[in-house]
Every structure is written in structure tokens, then in C-alpha cells.
Write a structure and sequence with these properties.
It is built from 16 helices and eleven strands. It is α/β, with parallel strands linked by helices. The two termini are about 35 Å apart. About 50% of the residues are buried.
């Protein structure tokens, strides 16, 4: 029998909680569900829910976005990308296009898509044109891209790949000794593809309570209750609170396609730096479909290349070190209409989520629960 959100809240409120417990929710989808459902205000004051690094748009390297823009403007290509990527800002001189959307207004043939299959269809409709698919995302996005490539793509379609793996970012935080959380809620959709076992390191190496959650309040509150109980009892384990979709070993077909098409590489995360084994690159036998080899980029010197924009602290938000409204630009210079940093662009970015939920005040005046 499914336990209701109200029942989970009653169970949590009945716990003899410590003075403070900080729970990191890795996924941007989790943050959106938590904020929209008002779970922060519903939970006891001792429970602090911290947004984490699970926004692919937020961590996509600035230089990758810039490379996509230059391809669209300098080469005779038709560039396609997932819709959120079109508004991610890059660091350029004043007056130059600073995102793919502005590059399109400047004459680049740039089109938003929602599925890798749309990239194939566009390439088939334009056989005399070179089509580049700027493919950024985590495992749940990378798996369909791998499936597309495994099935075969038109010769005029190449991939500008910016794929990332979720768990290495959390491992980096924990290994650094600077993690500012006491328990972890891991993303159910990633575990559905890759298997829950990827998250066992949280318990095995760091003795930290962990649970995998889906995207409704019931699953998220079940995971919250689980990690609270684990913490109070001193008995950490990895709890699967999304059993309807998460199975041991994940999705074998998706994992085989990822292994077949991609190779795991060290990769850069915007504002954070390089994280070991955190990215996907095309396997050597897919070199013919690699846009970076098909269109080698000339060296370009830019100020702040690869960095966050001046004054932007999206990296702090992504790493769980600050809340969105603790960034000096939040709600002032940076809004969804005119985003300065990438966390205000995507609907998986914590800044955009908080703004959309009506949390408009800066940190010192915000009504959210303080640490």
C-alpha cells in the first residue's frame, strides 16, 4: 500500500531529531519537486534540504557552449541542441552574442530539439548540409544519444558531445572533506538507467546515510525519513525508495549502448574544474561522427574563458555551499528574463526553480529556514 505524503510527514515529525541535519538532493528534478510542493516549510526546522549538482545545463563547460556558437556562426552548419542550452551565457566582449539564442539572431542556423531522433530527422531532411548535434546532459540524456548513435546516424550528422556522469561530482565533494551535508538523496532517474549500486560509495566509503528517490512528494519524503532514521540510529545504508523503476543493475540495454558508443573521460564542470572520470567522450571507433574532429576549432583567446560570469556564484549553488538567494546577483542583475549565470536558465537550475516558486528576496530577508 502506498504511504501518503501526509503520513510520511507525520512520521518525520514524530522523530526525536538532532538539532540540525543537512540533506543534499543531487537532482535538479528533485529540487523542482521539493520547491513546488513546499516541502522545506513542511518539514521540521532541524531538517535542511540543500540543492546539489544535478543540473546539466548549469555545469556544461562554458567553452563547449562557446564552441557550439562558433560552429553555428563561422561554419556552414545547421546546429541543433536541447532547448535549455540556447540561453546559457558565455563570457564574450560586450556587443557579441553571449548565448546560442543570440547567435541565432546574429544569423546562425540554430534549432532547439527535444529528442536525439529529431537531430537524425533534421539531418535526413537536409542531406546536403552538415548538421551538428550539441549533446549536453547527464546519463539519462546521454543514454538516448548513445542509442541514436548505436542505431546509425546519417553521414552529415556529427556530435559535439558534452556528456557528464552524476556520481563523480558527489564523490569529489565527499573526498574533498568539504561536503556541507550529512545525508544524501540520490536521483531516481539516473539510478533507473545506471543502477542503484553506483551510489553505494556514499555508505561504503563515507558511512553517510543515503536513499534513492523518485520525483513525487511521497517518494522524496520516504527518502527523507529513511536518511533521518539512518542518521539517528547510526546505521547508514543505501535505501531504494523508488523501487517501481529502480532495479539492481539498472537498464542493461542502456548501459550496453553507453559502453559501446562512449568512453569515460576526465571532464571539466563549469566553475568547478576537472572531475576525474566524470564525463563521456566518443569512443575511438566513432571518430567519424565527432564534430570536434570534423570541424577543428582554431585557438581563441577570451577573457574569463571557461569561468562563470563576473559576480556569479552558480558554482557555489551547484556544490551546495550556498543557497540561490545568497548569490549577490540573484533577483537583482540575474533573473530568468535576463540570466547572468546558468543556474537561472534551466528549469533544473536551483536559481530558476526558486525564482519561479516566488522566492524573490535576497538571503538576509528570505523567509526560508536558516541554518
Amino acid at each position: 500500500m502506498t504511504v501518503s505524503a501526509r503520513s510520511w510527514l507525520e512520521r518525520i515529525r514524530a522523530l526525536n531529531l538532532p538539532e540540525r541535519i543537512r540533506i543534499l538532493n543531487v537532482c535538479g528534478g528533485h529540487e523542482r519537486a521539493i520547491t513546488q510542493a513546499g516541502l522545506r516549510t513542511a518539514l521540521p526546522n532541524q531538517v535542511e534540504l540543500i540543492p546539489g549538482p544535478g543540473c546539466p545545463v548549469c555545469v556544461c563547460p562554458e567553452e563547449d557552449v562557446y564552441e557550439a556558437m562558433r560552429l553555428a556562426l563561422d561554419e556552414d552548419v545547421l546546429l541543433v541542441a536541447f532547448g535549455d542550452m540556447l540561453r546559457v551565457p558565455v563570457n564574450v566582449a560586450k556587443g557579441e552574442p553571449r548565448c546560442l539564442e543570440q547567435a541565432r539572431a546574429a544569423g546562425g542556423d540554430i534549432r532547439p530539439i527535444a529528442s536525439p531522433l529529431e537531430a537524425v530527422a533534421i539531418a535526413q531532411r537536409h542531406p546536403r548540409r552538415q548538421v551538428v548535434f550539441f549533446a549536453a546532459g547527464f546519463e539519462t540524456t546521454s543514454a538516448p544519444v548513445a542509442a541514436m548513435m548505436a542505431a546509425g546516424v546519417p553521414g552529415n550528422l556529427s556530435i559535439l558531445l558534452s556528456g557528464r556522469r552524476t556520481w563523480p561530482a558527489v564523490a569529489m565533494l565527499l573526498d574533498s572533506g568539504e561536503a556541507r551535508f550529512d545525508a544524501l538523496i540520490a536521483p531516481g532517474h539516473v539510478a533507473t538507467v545506471m543502477g542503484p549500486e553506483e551510489w553505494s560509495f556514499v555508505v561504503d566509503r563515507h558511512a553517510m546515510p543515503a536513499a534513492i528517490a523518485g520525483f513525487n512528494p511521497e517518494s522524496l519524503l520516504a527518502a527523507t525519513y529513511s536518511v533521518l532514521r539512518q542518521s539517528m540510529e547510526g546505521r547508514p545504508f543505501l535505501d531504494n525508495c523508488y523501487p517501481e523503476l529502480v532495479r539492481p543493475g539498472g537498464n542493461p540495454t542502456a548501459r550496453r549502448q553507453l559502453d559501446r558508443v562512449f568512453r569515460v573521460i576526465d571532464a571539466n564542470w563549469r566553475g568547478i574544474g576537472e572531475i576525474t572520470a566524470s564525463g563521456y567522450g566518443l569512443s575511438p571507433d566513432r571518430a567519424a561522427s565527432d564534430a570536434r574532429l570534423r570541424f577543428p576549432a582554431p585557438p581563441v583567446s577570451r577573457r574569463r574563458a571557461g569561468e562563470m560570469p563576473p559576480g556569479c556564484d552558480c558554482a557555489g549553488v551547484v556544490l551546495g555551499r550556498i543557497y540561490p538567494n545568497e548569490c549577490a546577483l540573484y533577483g537583482r542583475a540575474c533573473t530568468p528574463r535576463k540570466p547572468i549565470g546558468p543556474c537561472m536558465v534551466s528549469d533544473e537550475g536551483a536559481c530558476r526553480i526558486w525564482w519561479a516558486a516566488g522566492l524573490r528576496e535576497p538571503h538576509e530577508h528570505c523567509a526560508r529556514k536558516q541554518a
